[in-house]
Amino acid sequence: YKKVDRKVRPVPGVFPEEAKVTRNFPEDPLDSLVPLPTTPPEFIPNGRLTKERLEEINFNADKFLWPEEEKLFTHILQLNQNAFVFEDTQRGSFREDYFSPYIIPIVPHEPWAFSNIPIPPGIREKVVELLKEKIAAGVYEASQSSYRSRWFCVIKKNGK
């Protein structure tokens, strides 16, 4: 429940043309598909897809697939392993020849700057390490913005 003074109301207006995302298909994605084998090979770990990560995906938990279907699906996963992200450093973004950069339109307003809730000293080092990892992976980036929103840390059940 929000009090009336905290309620967010949409601002009436027209979405600017320059902010619209353009979608293109410079090439037909079906042209680059590799034909699938009738007898798929055994799984050989390489690149991003390791035995542990394949077990983590757990795609046949209810044993719905037959063994040969499971091998074929594993082969398909291996052919497309770059589509999966297991660490922040493996993240990517959409190619600009397929999607134009996203522009967020704003209306004139006064920027806000809220101070953060202090980080508890017991987890400060973990938080700093996590932030450095996210910056190195490109998830977070430096900003010169006038805005500053509150954020806080919560330790998850796994201790991270």
Q: Describe it for me?
A:
21% of the residues lie in helices and 0% in strands. The chain is an all-alpha fold. It has 2 domains: 8-108, no CATH class; 110-160, no CATH class. The longest helix is centred in the C-terminal third of the chain and has 14 residues, at 124-137. It is extended, with a radius of gyration of 23 Å. The model has no long low-confidence stretch (mean pLDDT 88).
Give a short synopsis of this structure.
The chain has helices at 51-57, 67-79, 124-137.
Extended strand count: 0
Shape, please? Answer: extended
Please identify the structural class as seen in this structure: mainly alpha
* Total discrete domains: 2
Main features:
mainly alpha, about 20% helix, extended, 2 domains, about 160 residues, Reverse transcriptase domain-containing protein, 3 helices
Topology:
Blueprint: H1 51-57, H2 67-79, H3 124-137
